[in-house]
């Protein structure tokens, strides 16, 4: 089986929208704390210029960020951003732009920072997929330059996108806020692609997708999740023994291939159940279950409610 665009398949299951909220223009010393986000929200920060540190308040561990870096927090974790000096921050004052976003400044005279902050929104139940398969903190570095074969990497595309966001945020052209929000959606996809192409892809789906030996299995699962895949058939696609395949998959993803397959099936089923004319039996069959009882059991285990309850909840939400 040829390689399948797993990322497009993943994002076709869910609707991801983005919203720019704050542009931070600070001089050191500065420090801002972000509370834990709601389950369906993923905070993001784009360092346009300068340097910053993102710190986990629970562990005290910090990661350095530089101009062009993008950080996503897929689990919505509380976090602190600061200049790294340890000095007490000065006064911060904000004003709301006419287009609805906030510009935050301070009185610091030290090293300058220009940063965009916002959120991605993912509707349930697909936010669970993101939390389960992406790391707590994802830092993606943009860089210029082409590969040895002359190809343009996702990181290069990201650098161009960040450059465009920098120009739009600093300008006063009509429609800039709408453009920045539209670019935010592209930012999410490009950041995941760049992370999966990295030599140091974080454990989870991004590391798995970048593993060449496991690519046939990933392609198969995303291309045809309703097929009756099992571990021997997936291992055979990768020319591995069942034991070797299971070990590699578990090491990269932290979960089994069957768990991933089941999660994809249930996500697709949740989408289908929103359609009033489609029966539960038809939904079960469309995602590979010949037994409606088995489908109901698995769906309830994964989603925390029965297919009927999810259907009613989705209908009320609409």
Briefly summarize what is shown.
This protein is α+β, with helices and mostly antiparallel strands. The protein has 12 helices and 11 strands.
CATH-assigned homologous superfamily of the largest domain? Jelly Rolls
Oligomer status = single chain
Mean pLDDT: 89
| Total domain count | 2
Q: Give me the side-by-side strand order of the main sheet.
A: 8-9-1-10-3-6-11
Number of strands: 11
- The assigned structural class equals alpha+beta
CATH topology of the largest domain: Jelly Rolls
Could you explain the architecture of this structure?
The protein has twelve helices and eleven strands. It folds into two domains: 197 residues, Jelly Rolls (Sandwich), CATH 2.60.120.10; 107 residues, Homeodomain-like (Arc Repressor Mutant, subunit A), CATH 1.10.10.60. The strands form two sheets. It has a seven-stranded mixed β-sheet. Strands 2-7-4-5 form a four-stranded antiparallel β-sheet, with no helix packed on it. It has 318 residues and is an alpha+beta fold. Helix 3 packs antiparallel against helix 4, helix 7 crosses helix 8 and helix 9 crosses helix 11. The protein is globular.
């Amino acid at each position: 089986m040829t390689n399948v665009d797993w990322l497009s398949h993943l994002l076709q299951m869910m609707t991801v929208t983005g919203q720019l909220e704050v542009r931070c223009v600070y001089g050191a010393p500065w420090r801002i704390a972000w509370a834990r986000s709601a389950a369906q929200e993923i905070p993001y920060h784009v360092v346009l210029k300068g340097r910053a540190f993102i710190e986990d308040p629970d562990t005290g561990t910090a990661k350095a960020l530089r101009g062009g870096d993008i950080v996503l927090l897929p689990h919505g974790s509380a976090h602190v951003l600061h200049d790294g000096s340890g000095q007490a921050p000065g006064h911060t004052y904000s004003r709301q732009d006419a287009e609805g976003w906030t510009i935050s400044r301070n009185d610091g005279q030290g090293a300058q920072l220009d940063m965009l902050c916002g959120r991605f929104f993912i509707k349930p139940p697909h936010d669970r997929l993101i939390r389960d398969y992406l790391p707590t903190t994802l830092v993606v570095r943009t860089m210029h330059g082409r590969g040895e074969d002359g190809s343009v990497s996702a990181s290069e595309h990201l650098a161009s996108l960040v450059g465009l966001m920098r120009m739009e945020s600093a300008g006063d052209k009509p429609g800039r806020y709408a453009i920045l929000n539209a670019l935010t959606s592209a930012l999410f996809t490009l950041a995941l692609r760049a992370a999966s192409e990295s030599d140091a892809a974080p454990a989870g789906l991004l590391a798995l997708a970048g593993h060449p030996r496991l690519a046939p299995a990933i392609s198969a699962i995303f291309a045809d999740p309703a097929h009756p895949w099992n571990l021997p058939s997936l291992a055979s696609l990768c020319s591995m023994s069942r034991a070797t395949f299971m070990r590699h998959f578990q090491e990269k993803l932290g979960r089994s291939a069957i768990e991933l397959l089941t999660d994809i099936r249930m996500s697709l089923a949740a989408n289908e159940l929103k359609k009033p004319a489609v029966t539960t039996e038809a939904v079960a069959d469309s995602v590979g279950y010949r037994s409606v009882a088995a489908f109901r059991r698995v769906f309830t285990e994964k989603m925390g409610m029965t297919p009927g309850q999810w259907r009613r909840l989705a209908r009320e939400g609409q």
